[in-house]
Design brief:
There is one protein chain. 73% of the residues lie in helices and 0% in strands. By secondary structure, it is an all-alpha fold. The longest helix is centred in the first third of the chain and has 36 residues.
């Protein structure tokens, strides 16, 4: 793929970098998402079909018994949350590999995500709680928190920090750049929404007569295609903020230059360091006051 630009990016350049990474690493990104989301999607489709069957059966018998289906749906919701965190973190890890100088396989990306799963779940819960409260009382504070904490997952995955430290780290990185970052996410959300609606409409029309289960299974496809985009975008923004605030581009360049320097072997004829011998003392000490110089030959 084209070399990533380690310099401050405009909103348009950030979106362009997002779609470029998506296009160049499409197979890896979609595989990461598919491995964890497809099994959950299949299970969810089966449960939804079962729930529809229960409703029809209850209407016929007059009994209202949805306990089993609701419990199963609740379990699937928790599993879907876990799968979403793994998929997001896996894509973040894969994109980070592009910035740090090496491609990351989908297996390695998901393994790295798995190792950070505890922090990711706690962090996402705290973020959802804070943003939810912000939206309930005042919409603007919720929006500010949503943008301010948007880089918490990249911080937790790439830097290995805890959930609370990841949230603090995100706040620090985003500070002073909330509106441009919000612009990136708004434009990307509109693109994803339009694409999802078009694709879902097409697939729904194709599977209309196939039944609830088939429709649910086909409905996984739009999610697989659009899910990586937001994860790629937050990673691009994360590195952009590090370039702006911490000189990450200079730091990485210095590391690359330092690792490529080949130090020549020392000349055996030259003494260096602590092995340098002390200068020999003069056999004739300096004269005392009143003595003649040079000393007379004895």
């Amino acid at each position: 793929m084209a070399k990533l630009q380690l310099r401050p990016l405009s909103v348009g350049e950030t979106l362009d970098a997002t779609f470029s990474i998506y296009k160049d690493r499409f197979k890896t990104m979609v595989t990461i998402v598919a491995v964890v989301l497809v099994p959950i999607g299949i299970l969810s489709a089966i449960i939804n079909a079962s729930l529809v069957s229960d409703v029809e059966s209850n209407l016929e018998t007059g009994l209202l018994d949805f306990g089993g289906s609701i419990a199963a749906a609740s379990i699937v919701s928790v599993l879907a949350w876990i799968a979403q965190m793994l998929a997001t973190a896996g894509v973040v890890k894969a994109v980070a590999g592009e910035y740090l100088g090496g491609s990351v396989t989908w297996q390695a990306a998901l393994d790295a995500a798995r190792q950070r799963l505890g922090a990711l779940l706690l962090g996402s819960f705290l973020i959802a709680l804070g943003v939810g409260i912000g939206f309930i009382f005042f919409i603007i504070p919720g929006l500010i928190l949503l943008v301010s904490w948007a880089l918490a997952i990249p911080a937790m995955v790439i830097e290995g920090v805890s959930a609370t430290d990841g949230i603090k780290r995100s706040w620090s990185l985003v500070s002073g750049r909330r509106w441009p970052i919000l612009g990136v996410f708004v434009v990307l959300y509109i693109v994803i929404l339009i694409f999802s609606l078009i694709l879902t409409g097409i697939l729904t029309g194709v599977t209309f007569l196939a039944g609830t289960l088939a429709s649910g299974l086909v409905g996984i496809i739009p999610q697989l295609l659009v899910a990586p985009l937001l994860s790629i975008a937050i990673t691009v923004v994360y590195f952009d903020q590090r370039v702006r605030k911490e000189g990450f581009d200079l730091e990485l360049l210095a590391g690359q230059i330092g690792s490529s320097i080949v130090h020549p072997p020392a000349d055996p004829g030259i003494q260096t360091g602590f092995d340098t011998p002390a200068p020999e003392s003069d056999s004739n000490p300096p004269p005392e006051a009143g003595d003649a110089w040079p000393p007379a030959n004895e």
